[in-house]
Design brief:
Layout: E1 14-18, H1 24-37, E2 44-47, E3 69-72, H2 77-90, E4 97-100, H3 103-107, H4 113-133, E5 142-148, H5 155-163, E6 169-175, E7 190-197, E8 204-210, E9 216-221, H6 224-233
Parallel strand pairs: 1-5, 1-6, 2-3, 2-4, 4-5
Antiparallel strand pairs: 6-7, 7-8, 8-9
Helix pairs in contact: 2-4, 4-5
Protein name: ATPase SWSAP1 isoform X1
GO cellular component, one term: Shu complex
Region (Disordered): 219-251
Length: 251
């Protein structure tokens, strides 16, 4: 656009993938909280088929962060499509993050892979629009979308094939026992291994831990090569505790 100022770094669109019960919604909401806590001008748009059963908090929730998250619950694919197409006109302030939870539920009512791709393209266009609006700031608008693992055949696989290339960064969530890092006997109710894949960077992994009270903590794991080297030398790699959020997928 002629005369426009230089746009700050644009975070890579991130697709969060995991099976049912892998904590996708909790992780996504934590990302929204952190995104809303970075600066006072941050504004996060959280889209989902329905409200979360409870709002996870924790240390990631800065003072007033929840007030800077705008929740919208479009009930159908068509309603979501129309909403996204009009966001640049209806939102009074530019968003620093757009989060969409439960994409697979919307795609269940999607007529074709082409229409699914249209939705994601609109989300990207909207994210780019808000990045341009935030050109005076240091960072653009992040887009994070979550969906359940697609099936290997049928409409789910076709829809996934139509949209996955729009997301340079993929964060895969896998249930884990924690045996290999000594977390199998710590009273945790759920362990999820998060594996980040994005072009041009090393793969990264985190362990997402849920205790009996439902609290979530995230610990970085050594990269695969480091783990292999430590195994050869007979040393178990240590895991440092960190109250973190979805890993940054910024370019």
């Amino acid at each position: 656009m002629a005369g426009a100022g230089a746009v700050g770094p644009r975070p890579r669109p991130l697709l969060l993938l995991g099976p049912t019960g892998s904590g996708r919604s909790t992780l996504l909401f934590r990302a929204a909280l952190v995104g809303a806590s970075v600066v006072s001008s941050a504004r996060v748009l959280f889209l989902a088929p329905r409200p979360l059963e409870r709002l996870p908090g924790g240390k990631a929730a800065g003072a007033g962060a929840i007030q800077r998250i705008h929740f919208l619950y479009p009930a159908s694919f068509q309603e979501l499509l129309q909403l996204v197409a009009s966001l640049h006109q209806t939102l009074s302030s530019s968003s620093s993050m757009i989060v969409l939870d439960g994409l697979e539920e919307y795609l269940n009512n999607c007529s074709s892979p082409c229409t699914a791709a249209q939705l994601v393209a609109l989300l990207l266009d909207t994210s780019n629009y808000f990045s341009q609006k935030r050109s005076h700031l240091s960072v653009g608008c992040q887009l994070i979308v979550s969906m359940k693992f697609p099936g290997e055949a049928g409409e789910e696989a076709e829809h996934f094939s139509a949209i996955e290339h729009y997301f340079p960064a993929h964060l895969w969530l896998h249930p884990d026992t924690g045996v290999d890092i000594g977390l199998d006997n710590q009273g945790l109710t759920k362990l999820i291994r998060a594996h980040l894949l994005q072009p041009g960077t090393k793969d990264q992994e985190w362990m997402v831990k849920f205790d009996a009270q439902g609290s979530m903590t995230i610990s970085p794991l050594p990269c695969k090569n480091e783990t292999e080297n430590d195994t050869v030398s007979g040393n178990r790699p240590s895991v440092s505790e960190a109250d973190a959020t979805v890993p940054s997928s910024q370019s």
